[in-house]
């Protein structure tokens, strides 16, 4: 779909948009639903109407009543033509089990209830049978369940494809699945509406060969909310990975100067007065994140360097400034020395970069450089900008490492999954949030243009 990736020529069709372990069962992607029809009992329209195109009365109230009726009976998926509405139940309904994956792979959509797997299955079969790229768009408010939906899509694709593809195919599927806990640790955070809210947008392409086996892919990230590194709304958290650092072993914490420290020890974390999130075990998530890094073949020394940089970001927030003449200086030299050791930077150079602004005048042999002192507020702004820049570069580097493990030279047919973080309004809204709200509004217009208007023209 052209709006998702304008840099690439595409004739992709649009699969139905959306408002972790692989299974062991050996069922083939060549088995199509009409070959095994009626293996499962008819589950359609048992509660309300599965596809609201078939409602006898089409009105806003009728649609809401139907959704409420289904939601009360834990039927969280409802169709409107090719659009799947997914409502977050806020409990685990066990809707992505291996048994359900096999069921939705083998049966036709006319007999079983709508599901995230229905949409994914349609996209995969269209790719294999029509040799045409597909796109699945996921949009909605913060906390609507978009991240879980994208994880379910990738889990389903990994399970039904490439069962006999060999070591390379298995490695690609493993990298695609393992990228989830890594990106969640570095890109997700607790907000007032969602304890695991994605604070970045991502577009994942999984490329398949002519047999329908995955042969590569790529990840593009958009609009990482870097402002969350330095400030959060009360009762929210920064990115999960910062809280995972305090669950490292004693030796690692000693190396990055976190021994005896807690989130309350750092200005960047304590302002929001929130250090835990229900349903998120930072210790377990740390293990999963490290395992994901190892799957991506990131050497141990580079993993250690990432932890050092993250600790450096936290210590950077503890630097305070005081006035010095027309400029400023760091008031606590011990904090400066600690940070310098963590980042392996000379302390004098680091202080100079934070407290002075360099102005370049002239050109060539007549060029001159002037050091202009910064006042306290300007120095604090530079400190925060430095912290956000470090974190942003870490995130971009991790995405690049994922791509290095699954990239393929020759472009081919793919399934694209756009998961963009949700529409939300905070007390203080960052520029990133303004952009993401605008993107969500634009996506809804795409839904209307490509689906609802198409249905109107058809009838």
Distinctive features:
single chain; 459 residues; five-stranded mixed sheet; elongated
Give structural notes.
- Helices cover 43% and strands 14% of the residues.
- It is of the alpha+beta class.
- Strands 1-4-13-7-8 form a five-stranded mixed β-sheet, with helices on both faces. The protein has a two-stranded antiparallel sheet with strand order 2-3. Strands 5-6 form a two-stranded antiparallel ribbon.
- Strand 2 (77-80) and strand 3 (83-86) form a beta hairpin.
- Helix 3 (116-130) packs across helix 4 (146-160).
- 36% of the residues are buried.
- Residues 1-15 and 20-38 have low confidence and may be disordered.
Q: What does the radius of gyration come to?
A: 25 Å
- Report the span from N to C terminus: 24 Å
Helix tally equals 14
Give the amount of beta strand, in percent: 5-15%
- How many runs of DSSP E, i.e. beta strands? 13
In the predicted model, the low-confidence regions spanning at least 5 consecutive residues are 1-15, 20-38
Average predicted confidence as pLDDT: 86
**What structural class should be given to the helix and strand makeup?**
alpha+beta
What sequence of helices (H) and strands (E) makes up the elements?
EHEEHHEHHEEEEHHHHHEEHHEEHEH
For the largest sheet, list the strands in their spatial order.
1-4-13-7-8
For the biggest sheet, the summary is: 5 strands, mixed
Using the alpha-carbon principal axes, give the shape. Answer: elongated
Helix content: 40-55%
């Amino acid at each position: 779909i052209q709006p998702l990736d304008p840099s690439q020529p595409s004739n992709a069709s649009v699969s139905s948009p959306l408002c972790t372990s692989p299974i062991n069962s050996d069922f083939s992607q060549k088995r199509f639903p009409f070959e095994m029809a009626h293996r499962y009992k008819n589950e359609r329209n048992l509660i309300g109407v599965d596809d609201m195109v078939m409602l006898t009365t089409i009105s806003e109230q009728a649609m809401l009543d139907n959704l409420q009726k289904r939601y009360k009976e834990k039927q969280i998926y409802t169709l409107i033509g090719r659009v799947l509405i997914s409502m977050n139940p806020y409990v685990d309904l066990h809707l992505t089990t291996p048994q359900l994956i096999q069921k939705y792979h083998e049966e036709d959509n006319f007999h079983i209830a709508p599901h995230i797997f229905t949409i994914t299955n349609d996209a995969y079969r269209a790719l294999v049978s029509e040799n045409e790229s597909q796109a699945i768009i996921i949009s909605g408010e913060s906390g609507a369940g978009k991240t879980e939906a994208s994880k379910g899509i990738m889990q389903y694709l990994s399970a039904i494809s490439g069962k006999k593809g060999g070591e390379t195919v298995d490695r690609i599927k493993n990298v695609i699945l393992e990228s989830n806990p890594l990106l969640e640790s570095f890109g997700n955070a607790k907000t007032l509406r969602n304890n695991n809210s994605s604070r970045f947008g991502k577009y994942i392409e999984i490329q398949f060969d002519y047999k329908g086996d995955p042969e590569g892919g790529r990840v593009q990230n958009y609009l990482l909310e870097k402002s969350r590194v330095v400030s959060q709304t009360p009762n929210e958290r920064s990115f999960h990975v910062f809280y995972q650092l305090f669950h490292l072993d004693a030796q690692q914490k000693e190396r990055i100067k976190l021994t005896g420290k807690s989130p309350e020890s750092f200005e960047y974390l304590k302002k929001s007065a929130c250090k835990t999130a229900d349903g998120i075990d930072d210790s377990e998530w740390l293990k999963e994140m490290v395992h994901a890094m190892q799957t991506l073949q990131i050497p141990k020394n580079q993993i250690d360097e990432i932890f050092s940089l993250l600790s450096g970001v936290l210590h950077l927030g503890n630097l305070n400034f005081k006035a010095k003449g027309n400029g400023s200086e760091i008031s606590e030299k011990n904090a400066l020395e600690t940070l310098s050791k963590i980042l392996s930077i000379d302390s004098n150079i680091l202080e100079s970069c934070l407290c002075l602004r360099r102005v370049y005048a002239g050109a060539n042999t007549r060029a001159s450089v002037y050091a202009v002192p910064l006042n306290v507020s300007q120095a604090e702004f530079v400190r925060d900008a430095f912290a956000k820049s470090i974190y942003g570069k870490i995130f971009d580097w991790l995405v690049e490492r994922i791509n290095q493990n699954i990239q393929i030279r020759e472009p081919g047919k793919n399934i694209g999954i756009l998961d963009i973080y949700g529409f939300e309004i905070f007390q203080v809204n960052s520029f990133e949030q303004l952009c993401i709200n605008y993107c969500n509004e634009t996506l809804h217009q795409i839904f209307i243009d490509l689906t609802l208007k198409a249905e109107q023209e058809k009838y």
